[in-house]
Specification:
This protein folds into three domains: 32 residues, no CATH class; 74 residues; 55 residues, no CATH class. It is 54% helix and 6% strand. It has a two-stranded parallel ribbon with strand order 1-2. β3 and β4 form a beta hairpin. It starts with a helix and ends with a helix.
Length: 191
């Protein structure tokens, strides 16, 4: 049905969204069904957009940060500009500050919001750990966290984690794209 619509309805556009590329979805050769489709990869926000999201998500947003933008920048860095986590963490932060009847966030408030994020979004983190990453990829992530050497046979897992935007290469080696995911693994998976 979708293939027919894609090929024969000139004014119809179908949009399919998902967390996996078609070639990653097992048993069916989806390329035959989605013959004339274009894949558009949606990634993280750029730093300035992410900062704007945590400082001015709506006009006249009255949340302040105690050290100007430095606390807000640290929040963005820890969340790696990942839009879903930024919004979820901001929800936790605003709720936390509302319970205290305050409108200025401090670094300890950010830490509390991140801890609450681990609980409220545990299914998100669990999904990445249990479903998105293979056993070999988990070995790589654990080795990075424990600062152990990564073996050459782990290179395919590293490439996969980079493609999945879990890791990225920097001058000083492999780093987590979303540093709070590293924090979550340390707290919940690595002993």
């Amino acid at each position: 049905m979708f293939r027919h619509w894609i090929q024969h309805l000139p004014r119809t556009i179908c949009l399919f969204a998902g967390s996996h590329a078609l070639n990653e979805i097992g048993a069916i050769d989806w390329t035959d069904y989605f013959i004339n489709v274009r894949t558009v990869r949606i990634s993280f926000l750029d730093f300035d957009s992410a900062l704007r999201l945590v400082t001015e998500p709506i006009p006249r947003f009255d949340l302040q940060y105690d050290s100007g933008l430095e606390t807000a920048k640290e929040l963005v860095r820890r969340l790696g500009c990942q839009p879903f986590l930024l919004q979820a963490a901001m929800s936790e932060l605003v709720n936390h500050l509302n319970t205290l009847h305050r409108k200025t966030a401090t670094q300890p408030d950010i830490d509390i919001a991140i801890e609450k994020l681990f609980d409220s979004q545990s299914t998100y983190f669990d999904h990445i750990w249990k479903t998105v990453t293979s056993e070999q990829e988990k070995e790589v992530l654990t080795a990075i966290i424990k600062q152990k050497p990564i073996r050459e046979q782990h290179e395919p897992a590293i490439r996969s984690l980079i493609r999945k935007e879990v890791l990225r290469r920097e001058d000083d080696g492999l780093v987590f794209c979303v540093p709070v995911f590293r924090e979550w693994i340390l707290k919940h998976q690595v002993s």
